């Protein structure tokens, strides 16, 4: 049986309820997303539906993409994480690669035949991206890359890496196929949250790539490649965080209706109602912030960058807050893999660290303070 | 709100950095506030406002140094497209 295509929120919800929700806790325990799901996501056209039709995408707009990533995040943040980094790489190829590279990679990225991952962080540099030490040295034939990347989501499984490395003039983005000689992948296991997201540490030892492996412009706008890539990653993580809040809400509402204390369902207790009401409200607020950021992306409006920071900041902190309250509502049951909230709780914490930690979000958003007008 | 390309660009930069005093010939990079976030906002603003796509080889610092040089870039790209 083939899987139906995901084209909007409704079809995404059906896909997630059928193929992800029933298994997400098992994948979390197992520490990996199975090939079967990766194949089903390919059949559903989930990997890069925003790519143009000529490359096998569906030309999906950003608002809809946000809705789709929200639905996936509601089901499983590990799958959403794989989707996020694949999205970042695919978008960067679409935006900055040469026509020949787009021909080469586009269809494989759209179909999921090649999965992408994003390599920026290193053992010694995370928030401070200017501190990366991986280098790309220009030669007659192309580039030679040396260095170690850490925390690469999907790194265990990805076929192609988007590697940020220091060049003589700036930080450049390089497309590096996994099977290039000198690339070594070491799995990172037993992490706290998004446990099935197949993290890896990746070492590049004298890795030779062709001249065109460097994507985008050099000079002052070289940073645009990273800024744009991270912006889309942040948008996807914001969407995934909305999904976590929604997941917490659905699990908590169901549990509070069923569980009785003193002969009354939990949902009749005012203190539990307060938690549920805040989940409903924050889910809507976060979703609106996300939709606004998506609309601005679709319009090519530069205000999308700040709107995305704000959406991600609000949604990730809301996810962490409500996941904690969702465990609280579930009591001891919330500590077990029998309910999804323990996983939401661990996954939500990751959202406050990746694609710009909370602290970095707040520092950036504070820059908006003196120009913020309705 | 200004009608000229220079004026629109200056309005945008001033909106982002209300504390800076700017004119169309001033080197915005010399003011020290340009980071990669702003560079991207600037490029997106120019592309959207003037309906142009800036190819990779035009994404050079000299084209973005001043409101005047950005206006010249827009003019050149519009003529290529026409
Ligand atoms: C599950 C997971 C998946 C990830 N996936 C990827 C991936 O696919 N690709 C990738 O490249 N990276 C990935 N990362 C790495 C992630 O991007 C970094 O962890 C993140 O950028 C933070 O960097 P760091 O961990 O080095 O923390 P640090 O930068 O060392 O920061 C430590 C703490 O100090 C705070 N801090 C830092 N600077 C400041 C400041 N100036 N002012 C105030 N506080 C500050 C931070 O907010 C944080 O709380 C992943 C991480 C995790 C946990």
Automatic annotation (TrEMBL), chain A:
Domain spans labelled Acyl-CoA dehydrogenase/oxidase C-terminal: 225-366
Keywords of the record: FAD, Flavoprotein, Oxidoreductase
Cross-referenced Pfam families: Acyl-CoA_dh_1 (PF00441), Acyl-CoA_dh_M (PF02770), Acyl-CoA_dh_N (PF02771)
Sequence ranges assigned to domain Acyl-CoA dehydrogenase/oxidase N-terminal in this UniProt record: 9-112
PROSITE patterns: ACYL_COA_DH_1
Cofactor (UniProt): FAD
The keyword Oxidoreductase is assigned to this record: yes
UniProt keyword Flavoprotein present: yes
Database matches in Gene3D superfamilies: Acyl-CoA dehydrogenase/oxidase, N-terminal domain, Butyryl-CoA Dehydrogenase, subunit A, domain 2, Butyryl-CoA Dehydrogenase, subunit A, domain 3
Record-annotated Acyl-CoA oxidase/dehydrogenase middle domain positions: 117-207
GO molecular function, one term: flavin adenine dinucleotide binding
Superkingdom assignment: Bacteria
Family the entry assigns: Belongs to the acyl-CoA dehydrogenase family.
Protein name: Alkylation response protein AidB-like acyl-CoA dehydrogenase
Automatic annotation (TrEMBL), chain B:
All residue ranges annotated as the Carrier domain in the record: 1-78
Gene3D superfamilies: ACP-like (1.10.1200.10)
InterPro entries assigned to the protein according to its UniProt record, in alphabetical order: ACP-like_sf, PP-bd_ACP
Any one Pfam family match given in the protein's UniProt record, by short name: PP-binding
Annotated protein name in UniProt: Acyl carrier protein
The organism of origin for this protein: Nonomuraea endophytica
Source species taxonomy: Bacteria, Bacillati, Actinomycetota, Actinomycetes, Streptosporangiales
């Amino acid at each position: 049986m083939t899987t139906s295509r995901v084209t909007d929120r409704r079809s995404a919800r059906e896909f997630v309820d059928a193929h992800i929700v029933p298994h997400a806790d098992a994948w979390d325990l197992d520490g990996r997303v199975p090939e079967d799901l990766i194949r089903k996501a390919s059949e559903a056209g989930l990997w890069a539906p925003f790519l143009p039709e000529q490359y096998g995408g569906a030309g999906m707009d950003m608002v809809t993409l946000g809705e789709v990533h929200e639905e996936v995040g509601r089901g499983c943040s590990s799958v959403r994480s794989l989707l996020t980094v694949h999205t970042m790489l695919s978008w960067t190829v679409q935006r900055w690669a040469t026509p020949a590279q787009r021909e080469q990679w586009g269809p494989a990225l759209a179909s999921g035949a090649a999965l992408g991952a994003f390599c920026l962080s290193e053992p010694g540099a995370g928030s401070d991206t200017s501190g990366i030490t991986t280098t790309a040295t220009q030669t007659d034939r192309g580039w030679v890359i040396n260095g170690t990347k850490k925390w690469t989501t999907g790194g265990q499984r990805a076929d192609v890496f988007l590697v940020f490395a220091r060049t003589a003039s700036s930080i450049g983005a390089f497309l590096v196929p996994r099977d290039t000689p000198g690339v070594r992948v070491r799995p990172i296991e037993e992490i706290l949250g998004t446990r099935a997201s197949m993290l890896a540490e990746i070492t590049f030892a004298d890795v030779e790539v062709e001249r065109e492996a460097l994507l985008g412009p050099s000079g002052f706008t070289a940073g645009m490649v990273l800024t744009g890539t991270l912006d889309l990653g942040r948008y996807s993580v914001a969407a995934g965080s909305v999904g976590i809040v929604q997941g917490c809400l659905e699990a908590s509402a169901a549990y509070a209706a069923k569980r009785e204390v003193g002969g009354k369902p939990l949902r009749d207790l005012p203190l539990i109602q307060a938690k549920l009401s805040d989940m409903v409200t924050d889910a809507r607020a976060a979703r609106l912030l996300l939709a606004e950021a998506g609309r601005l992306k679709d319009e090519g409006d530069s205000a999308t960058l700040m709107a995305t920071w704000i959406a991600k900041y609000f949604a990730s902190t809301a996810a962490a807050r409500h996941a904690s309250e969702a465990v609280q509502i579930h009591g001891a049951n919330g500590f077990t893999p029998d309910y999804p909230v323990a996983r939401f709780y661990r996954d939500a914490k990751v959202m406050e660290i990746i694609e710009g930690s909370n602290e970095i979000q707040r520092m950036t958003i504070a820059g908006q303070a003196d120009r913020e007008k309705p | 709100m200004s009608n000229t390309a220079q004026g629109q660009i200056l309005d945008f930069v001033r909106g982002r950095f209300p504390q800076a005093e700017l004119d169309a010939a001033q080197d915005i990079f010399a003011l020290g506030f340009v980071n990669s976030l702003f560079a991207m906002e600037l490029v997106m603003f120019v592309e959207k406002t003037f309906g142009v796509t800036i190819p990779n080889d035009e994404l050079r610092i000299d084209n973005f140094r001043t409101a005047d040089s950005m206006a010249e870039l827009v003019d050149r790209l519009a003529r290529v497209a026409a």
